[in-house]
Give the backbone structure.
Amino acid sequence: MNIRFTLNGQDVLIDVEPERRVLNILREDFGYFHARGTCYTGECGACTIFFNGEIAPSCLIPAFTLRESKVITFEWFSETEDCQDIIKGLADAGYESCKYCTPARILVIHALLENNPRPDEDEILRALSGMRCYCSDYTSLIEGVKNAGLIRNRRR
Amino acid sequence: MIEKSKSPHTYSPENLGDLLSLYKSMPDALVYGGGTYILKNQKREFLSLPENVIYLKRVEELNRISRTERFLEIGSSISINRVLSIGKHILPAALYNCLLGVGTPGIRNLATLGGNICVRDRRMDTFPLLHLLDARVELRKAGGSRWIQINRLFDSEGKASLQPGEILTRIRIPFDEWNVQVYHKLGSRAREGETTLSFCGLAKTQKGVINDIRIAYGCLGKQILRNREIEAELSGLKVPINIKDTASAMELLKENMDKIGIAISNFQKKRAVSFLRLFLLRLAEV
Ligand SMILES: Cc1cc2nc3c(=O)[nH]c(=O)nc-3n(C[C@H](O)[C@H](O)[C@H](O)COP(=O)(O)OP(=O)(O)OC[C@H]3O[C@@H](n4cnc5c(N)ncnc54)[C@H](O)[C@@H]3O)c2cc1C
């Protein structure tokens, strides 16, 4: 099946099986390895990407739904100032993670801050509830997200 | 090596007319909303899908939201997060809380409200609450449409009343003056079993008297538990409800849970009774 869609700002045309997971397409056909395949059931959040502007688990997106869609992966997002704000905000709070889940976590934080520049603790925890990696220290994570929001608001 | 099955034919109609004629020509096709239930337990690299799959999300008519003074109407392909974005002050409070508890933010971006209602082998989170809210759903097939009460969508055994070629297109939720609204969920849908339970409670009180009260439980497989006998007993009572009437309602619930043919664990029974008690206490707070 031929599918045209936008991947990290570029128009692409691929020939794939319609039932293939976008997670596997990104990793195997495009070499975008920051979306991790862990649970394959949409529960862990490690394969998160932006799908039509919203975060979604790429393991639960079959190729046939890609047509004319817009996909953004962490590889592209990591080049943006928005991403640098988040990295700095987290680092300032002394947040350390296992690195495995960090790309997805950063995308989730970005989605939160876009809708809600000053989230409170509950909102942060709720937004991150889809991340099932228990590597994190939640106190510094919450602090880091708040920092990131402030840094971003100042810059913008 | 695991062999890959044949690829499905997938269709993405862009308007309702095309969708209905397509579904009429292949009534065995799988109707695909957000796919989050359909794909839930598939762990293999290639997803297993039937021969024909009809993707609903591009159908323009199914992606509309409208509002009148009396009701809110939501297209069946609207994602759960888009429903939430209608806002806390417009959506019934209990529905807002219920939707916030569906899956994770990423899942809610894919999952549709129509899909949540139409899951065949169990009633998902919105179902018991939409039932209490008197929601109606529009079902359409080529050459016909009908509106039914949401509880008519499945019979008492949980069998869907959707006819071949029929799609759920819109959900209509009346605005009503429920001044007490409660939604609680225990446990996670991802591991649904003996320790999951949801509680929905709605009540209208006026001058310290209960005018209308509705209670339902979910996460009980294909059934929801609603007991109109308890509701009738509680209607007309003064708030705060006295200890005797509270105890009698709780007793009635226990008896009812033992009688009905739904498998309920002891844990669920105990929690069901606690939820009822908390709800009755809440009534006194308004
Ligand atoms: C990690 C995870 C967590 C989850 N947590 C929850 C939870 O907490 N609560 C909960 O309720 N659910 C949960 N779910 C299940 C699922 O995400 C939701 O029930 C969701 O709303 C289903 O919607 P969908 O659009 O993805 O449905 P789909 O998977 O596309 O479809 C579900 C069923 O409905 C049928 N269908 C879909 N749309 C229509 C229509 N318009 N007309 C007729 N038939 C239709 C399909 O054919 C299929 O049989 C979870 C799923 C995952 C993967």
User: Anything to note?
Assistant: Residues A 41-43; B 30-38, 40, 56, 76, 80, 101-103, 107, 110-112, 114-116, 118-120, 124-125, 167-168, 189-190 surround flavin-adenine dinucleotide (CB under 6 Å). The CA atoms of residues 189 and 196 of chain B lie 7 Å apart. Chain B touches chain A at residues 4, 7-8, 10, 12, 35-36, 39-43, 45-49, 53, 55, 57, 81, 100, 103-107, 109-110, 190 (CB under 8 Å). The mean pLDDT of chain B is 94.
